[in-house]
Amino acid sequence: MKRRPSVLTNRIWFVLSVFNFILLALTCFGISLVYAQAGEITLRPTDDTYVDSNNPNSNYGGQTYLEIEYSVLGSDPYQAVYKDLAWLKFDLSSIPTGAVTDEATLQLYASIVGETFNVYAYSCSNDSWTELTLTYSNMPNYNATPMDTTIVATGSRWYNWSAVDAVRNALAGNFSAITIVLNDPSPHSSLSDIWFCSKEAPVIITDCSPTLTVRWSSIIPEFPTFLLLSLFMIITLIATTYHKKNAYPNPARASHRDQAKSSLF
Fold first, then answer.
1. Residues 173 and 230 in one domain
2. Beta carbons of 214 and 103 less than 8 angstroms apart
3. Within-domain flag for 1
4. Which of 17, 56, 96, 233 places its Cα 20 to 30 Å from the Cα of 140?
5. Residue 228 φ/ψ, nearest 5 degrees
6. Cα–Cα distance for residue pair 182/121, rounded to 1 Å
7. Same domain (yes/no): 203, 244
């Protein structure tokens, strides 16, 4: 005989059903369950150097400065082009898995500024280069769209560029490093350049080597989808069994209870 479930049974069934629905939604939309605290780290480059179009096979990985230059002198057929680009690579492996990057700021200290430059920062997906082997001839292709730009007008001060998009893309692609290229795409008429301190620059009063400061909020560790599905199935089984047990009691047990009650009278 079917028995109408009690109010308590209905409430328990409702709570289990709602919890199951939440688990299913988390599984379908890939939402993580464990939140970690925000964090920040300042990284030094593992590699930094510059390349020189006028000496395309020369390497400058051991220099204490990173040079940027783009000068065009004369006109065809006697035109001379001098183009130097700075390359920096940072190791991102110390950033926790699942970190959501909020800010990523590249900082360089300009020691010498010949004239005002509009320095652009570009990302490069190829991290196979090293500072002791990179030259103008073998440098990888980098992204043609700049991440950020900064006016560099005076020396003996720090300058910043945002690299947040590049860091986000690298972490999303499970890359352990990020490469940033700096240059001025507009030619200058005179032989002027910028010198930024490299990681090899001597520490006299303060450390002026390049830095990349990354700030993040995070959702780690992500709760595996298969565990969510397993938990969903277990709760579904428990809820269904509980509901059937209370809505459709065992007839034999019900008969015994009825006989026990009648024997009391």
1. no
2. yes
3. no
4. 96
5. -60, -45
6. 5
7. no
pLDDT tens, the chain, 265 aa long: 545 555 555 666 566 666 666 656 655 655 544 455 689 999 999 999 999 999 999 999 999 999 999 988 877 778 888 999 999 999 999 998 888 899 999 999 999 999 999 999 999 999 999 999 999 999 999 999 999 999 999 999 999 999 999 999 999 998 999 999 999 999 887 778 999 999 999 988 789 999 999 999 865 554 555 455 556 567 666 666 665 666 555 555 545 555 544 554 4
Structural domain includes residue 86: yes
Burial class of residue 216 (count of CB atoms within 10 Å of its CB; 0-12, 13-18, 19+): buried
Integer-rounded Cα radius of gyration of the chain: 32
The whole domain housing 238 covers 7-33+222-258
- Helix, strand, coil abundance in the chain, percent, nearest 5: 25, 35, 40
Residues 6+ apart with CB under 8 A from 109: 157, 158, 159, 196, 197, 201, 208, 209, 210
Give dist(CA 101, CA 104) in Å, integer: 7
Residue 152 domain-assigned? yes
DSSP state string for 222-261: PPPHHHHHHHHHHHHHHHHHHHHHHHS--HHHHHHHHHHH
The predicted model scores a pTM of 0.71
Query: If we measure between CA atoms, which residue out of 92, 23, 24, 35 comes closest to residue 222?
Result: 35
Q: Are residue 60 and residue 44 in the same domain, yes or no?
A: yes
Determine, yes or no, domain membership for 265: no
CATH number for the domain that contains residue 211: 2.60.120
Domain check: are 166 and 108 in the same one? yes
Look at the chain and count its residues. Answer: 265
**Looking at this protein, which amino acid is placed at residue 53?**
S
Collapsed DSSP state (helix, strand, coil) of residue 51: strand
